[in-house]
Design goal:
Number of strands: 11
Largest sheet: 7 strands, mixed
Number of helices: 10
Structural class: alpha+beta
Helix content: 25-40%
Radius of gyration: 19 Å
CATH class of the largest domain: Alpha Beta
Shape: globular
């Protein structure tokens, strides 16, 4: 049996770092939004073993890949070592870009294998497992738009607002998330809390006001080391973006638009040799997951 489906990227509409925790992670609050840039996954039943094939050089295909880790975790948790899978992964989401591509892949494997292996696990149980794989993974099994607290894995589902365009600009180099957090100076981060304001504008589908409130405490650290990020931000603002922000720990910068044509014109007019693509916000899992997976959970 085979399953074919897509897994989306995400952007952080806000990311506030509150403090460093005793476990070494950072306490944060963030609003995550899925967008329509997708990796492609195929899961094929095998009698035994877990295999991963990927079309992108440099992406690990062993147990260090989150997609493999997800399959192994599900095997061990459900005690189904006698079931295997071949995972074929086509990458369209850049690696190390702050877009959650690997986390989305892992979540997709959890949901897909739940169907392929007939495990009958609820979405809630899958989200608990997902938290063992990484802070962003639970989001990708929970909701297209959510408020994340703790390490980002404690989620409150937010109702999707009207669709808006998100122009993603990838400068062509990855940024290591641990490096960003290691260099974060908490005393210098902006302390005003804009989560409630952002939630209000999302609920009203007020994209212009939403754009004015985008904020990321990690951005100054990244811009100091990679000044090209600021150049991209300035370009997007000059091209009419309603708001511009670094996504997560980077390196992708995004601009939001409430007019598809303006987003396309801005994308075409950017001066740099950066990778860029116009996406839109996702409002439902049905936009990228087939019914055989959705209806199973």
């Amino acid at each position: 049996m085979k399953l074919k489906f897509r897994t989306p990227a995400k952007v952080n509409l806000t990311l506030n770092i509150l403090r460093k925790r005793e476990d070494g992670f950072h306490e944060l609050e963030t609003i995550l939004q899925m967008v329509s840039l997708y990796d492609e996954l195929e899961l094929e039943s095998l009698p035994l073993g877990i295999e991963l094939e990927c079309d992108t050089p440099g992406i690990p295909t062993d147990e260090t890949n989150l997609a493999c880790k997800a399959a192994l975790l599900l095997q061990e948790t459900c005690r189904v070592e006698d079931r295997g899978v071949r995972i074929r992964l086509k990458k369209n989401i850049p690696f190390g870009a702050g877009l959650g591509g690997g986390s989305g892949n892992a979540a997709g494997v959890l949901m897909g294998l739940n169907r392929l292996w007939n495990l009958n696990m609820s979405r809630e149980k899958l989200a608990i497992l997902a938290a063992e794989l990484g802070s962003d993974v639970p989001f990708f099994v929970t909701s297209p738009c959510a408020l994340g607290v703790g390490r980002g894995e404690q989620l409150e589902v937010l109702a999707p607002c009207s669709k808006f365009q998100v122009l993603l600009v990838f400068p062509g180099f990855p940024i290591a998330t641990p490096w960003v957090y290691q260099n974060l100076k908490l005393k210098l981060t902006k302390r005003e809390n804009n989560i409630s304001i952002l939630r209000k504008f999302l609920s009203l589908s007020d994209i212009a006001s939403l754009g004015s409130q985008l904020h990321n405490d990690l951005e100054p650290v990244v811009i100091q080391r990679f000044p090209e990020i600021q150049i991209i931000k300035d370009e997007l603002q000059a091209r009419g973006a309603l708001g511009v922000l670094l996504s997560g720990s980077g390196s992708t910068v995004f601009g939001i638009f409430n007019d598809p044509e303006k987003a396309r014109v801005a994308c075409a007019g950017l001066n740099g040799e950066w990778e860029r693509v116009v996406t839109e916000t996702i409002g439902s899992f049905s936009e990228f997951l087939p019914g055989e997976i959705l209806n199973y959970q």
